[in-house]
Design a protein that fits this description.
Blueprint: H1 11-22, E1 26-31, E2 36-39, H2 58-63, H3 67-83, E3 87-95, E4 101-113, E5 119-128, H4 130-183, H5 187-213, H6 231-239, E6 247-253, E7 259-260, H7 264-282, E8 286-294, E9 298-301, E10 308-311, E11 316-322, H8 329-332, H9 352-362, E12 366-371, E13 377-383, E14 385-386, H10 389-394, E15 399-403, E16 408-412, H11 416-428, E17 432-436, H12 439-448, E18 455-459, H13 467-477, E19 483-487, E20 505-508, H14 513-523, E21 529-533
Parallel strand pairs: 6-8, 16-17, 16-18, 18-19, 19-20
Antiparallel strand pairs: 1-2, 1-5, 3-4, 4-5, 7-14, 8-11, 9-10, 11-13, 12-13, 15-21
Helix pairs in contact: 4-5, 4-11, 6-7, 7-9, 12-13
Amino acid sequence: MTAGTSEPRTAADFELLQLLKMLAGTLWEVDLALDAVRFLGAGREPPQDFAPESPRKLADLFNLIQDDTREAARAEFEAFVGGGADSHSSEYRLRQVDGSHRWTYMRMRVVERDASGQPQRLLCLLTDRELSHQREEERSRLEAQLRHVQKLDALGQLTGGIAHDFNNILASVLGYAELGLLESGSPQGQEYFREVVRAGERGRDLIAKLLSFSRAGVDGTQQEVATSLAVVPDTLRMLRPMLPSTLTLEVDATPALPDVQMDASALQQLVLNLAINARDAVGENGLISVQIRRGEGGSASCASCGASLELGPEWIEIAVADDGSGMTAETQSRIFDPFFSTKEVGRGSGLGLSVVHSIVHEHGGHVLLASDPGSGSRFTLLLRPGLSESERTEDGEQRLTIDGAGRRLMVVDDDPAICNFMRTLLEQCHLEVDVQDDSDAALDHFESDPERYDLVITDQSMPGLSGVELADELLALRPDLPILVCSGFSEFVDAGNARELGFSAFLQKPVSVRELLEALVRYLPPQAHCSTDA
């Protein structure tokens, strides 16, 4: 066959042409002597499902290759033609008749040379590889996702391990602070201990968030805790370095306000979300003002749930205002919707205010909004006051105590500080305490006299036997034995499955004195006398 005719010259040429028609790609003849390129398919045009623009000259063929690889492809071709090899293959993105580019596998073979051995005629087979590349890209994407999941899992495991150790530290800090609070007769000393307890509780809340990330934390239910409003200015001070220096931030807080009924981490998240929202509204220059006060009366409607409200001193108000561009009524009606955002792409997820709505209402509060186009916006959180520790004492809340004379407990924990705290607290309740910092040794002691103990308190994550494994052994010896398990991080036991594993109760570390005593009141045999002291 020649470049000028499609008719076969010999029977062998005819058979070759029939074979070429059966190939699953498109075949082109490249005549270097005439600088001609032509299609050798069954028809006069390449198939439409894979149709590169029809080249007429060698330069046309190279012009089909995507710009960023064209010169490299030309250099490869020249090296192939001048190097004496019979074949060459490579992948390029070729322009199609519709203007798009598709990955194409190009195989070239020399079928005719001149007297000096220089290639004169080539056959070029083009095979569509776009689908194969798409599959490869999808496989790479899935592999990247898997690596990301594995990295998060490893990070979660690391987080959980750190949280476990830190929880043990917090447990002893909070425990001894609460003991000091009970024993201190000085009002000033009591206030010092309360500050230690508050700081420890903030650390406990932070660890709970880390454990939620590691998928092994608490169940997310809201506890009835009180948080000082001092968290608000502290949070804003932390945020200040992230705000433009040209932006003004003002805080006006009424002194001596009660605590709010919310954990510290949730209050911090509310303040951060509203402050960042205000920052985005005012830009580089502007004013953000934060006001903390008692409610002053009047009526209003919640901007996120629509409830009609009577305002007054039964509410604590935290207002975050900005002098930005404000919002239209239509925007205000949608701002609490998840993923709704008026910010440009990449500047926000649209979740900030929906999170505010969720946290506030979970804690029995509401959100007020005042905004007009051109006059800025003011978000006001209505939160329930909570009783601080000192207010609860002043209000006559009774402190739980136990007269456990004659009762014997075993405490198993590999942390010496926690063991010492538990011993001190429980001996003050007249309980006999056998403290073990090794779970295997604890089992040996128990086996020597299984009827000796009225209750066992055990950690979960320990060298040797874990809390679950220890409980299995103890219950095999004493099926009626009450066992309390304490853990700050565990993949195997939590509040949801503790009873199924044989435990009487699950206590989340760091365990407060009251939580521990309440559990003892509930699960110690009735011989232990429990009472309350005013």
